[in-house]
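Recall that a protein's primary structure is simply its ordered list of amino acids. Everything else, from secondary elements to tertiary packing, is in principle encoded there. The following example makes that idea concrete.
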Amino acid sequence: MNQTSLTIQFLGTGTSTGIPMIGCSCGVCVSADSKDKRLRSSILVQSADTVIVVDTTPDFRYQMLRTNTRKLDAVLYTHPHKDHLAGLDDIRAFNFFSDTSMKVYANSLTEEAVRRDFYYAFGDAKYPGVPDLDLITIDASPFMIGDIPVIPIEVMHHKMPVLGFRFGNFTYITDANRIEESEKEKIKGSAVLVLNALRKEKHISHFTLNEAVALAQELEIPQVYFTHISHQLGKHADINQELPGHIQLAYDGLTVCL
């Protein structure tokens, strides 16, 4: 496997409502700990030559500003839910400064949603300043974005197929509650695994904390981080104390180098 050096930064680690949740005064939402402040889930993957963002959340503009991201080569999508897609319009800033279209990698289900929700970017007579997108349809086949190898991993989000991705020795999976054995094989051997862990109570389309821990231990990954976290899970510091040392909650701004 390609051993390109990678830096991965967590742009957001929260579920679809983010933390704090609007109107909520629970202990997590009013916590003074910065690690309990979570934007919607996304990561930035960087090599020496290539910069990729996985998902453009409703917080995408702010995520780019607070990380001072000035170069972006491609967008890679996991699935078409709004908390992973809604910020795409703000890709326009990168169009302006690079004077080129943005490569957008998505499966056919997500591509359909992009064309529907951002229809104005695909018309014959485009209004000046609309996003300039180069849609590239992907499936389960491995591919390259610049010098970064990408292996898609199909997981299930209730009844919706969602893509996780392995970049070298780093695997990122969000919005899942089931992974078939054949797809687990693609994860094995990773140095770092990121997995969604929504809350402690059972959920129809997300792993619970215990389910995520069990899967992480089954796959025997040496370092595991949980993301797509709800305010229902509990405070960052409290939950980390309950977890094995090699399994921890991710937090906004966390950076992993491989």
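Residues 209-219 form the longest helix (11 residues). The CA atoms of residues 136 and 222 lie 33 Å apart.
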